[in-house]
Amino acid sequence: MTTLSRIRIGSAPDSWGVWFPEDPAQVSWRRFLDEVAACGYEWIELGPYGYLPTDPAELADETARRGLRVSAGTVFTGLHHGPAVWEKTWAHVADIAALTRAMGAEHLVVIPSFWRDDKTGVVLEERVLTPAQWRDLAAQTERLAHEVRERYGLRVVVHPHADTHIDTEENVTRFLDATDPDLVSLCLDTGHYAYCGGDCLKLIETYGERIGYLHLKQVDPEILAGVRADEAPFGPAVARGVMCEPPAGVPALEPVLAAAQRLGVDLFAIVEQDMYPCPPDKPLPIARRTRAFLRSCGA
Asked: pTM value?
């Protein structure tokens, strides 16, 4: 077994069924912090802004006394709409970036906006971007990455995601080819990329220098086949259990982690098993087993 010395393992509110700043279906933030620490994780993400305390002093105290540190914050953007959405985008990004930096993290995960509603399936815009929209997406992502780096010292890692315009192998490679490697890196989410038909190992081997961060999750192939047949949106697909507990799904995580180790750079690998909504007692046993499984992989 290879010791994955360059991989730093963590988890996120997502693995506890947390998708929103406030939702009665979600566990409390204190319970999340208690349980994620109890599983042996040392790193967490902020999750949806406002779920964890947004006061840096309070959050620093709550994480430190549980032996936790923050690896990244997350923002949602619609940058393919061009300069017209810049001010609105920056207003959303600035507070999250400030808290992320205050917590000592160095990464900001950027998720593109959905082309259809992730709950209702209502189509919000065209599924395929025009050439002009691709140019705006690339240019505005570079602008965001530059501003975030200059003002907050954070590295932007863009997260390909189901039901967004950066999803399939074709769209991910188009995005990477259109953006500056010095500014824009990728957050490879193994579950989302597999969900959209991509080969994670191939991506790491082909665009290894662009991989700046990892999210670890797996897809249940049988459920995914039904999701595709029904053209179900992402939210209902998650409710069906499309994202499953490792090692039951795809892609196999051990070779993905080994390939990431071979890149020769330090990488966070944050567990994110989408489970919204889920019973409050469900996440902890899964998180314990997942941490044990990743240790068996050398992480």
From this structure: 0.97
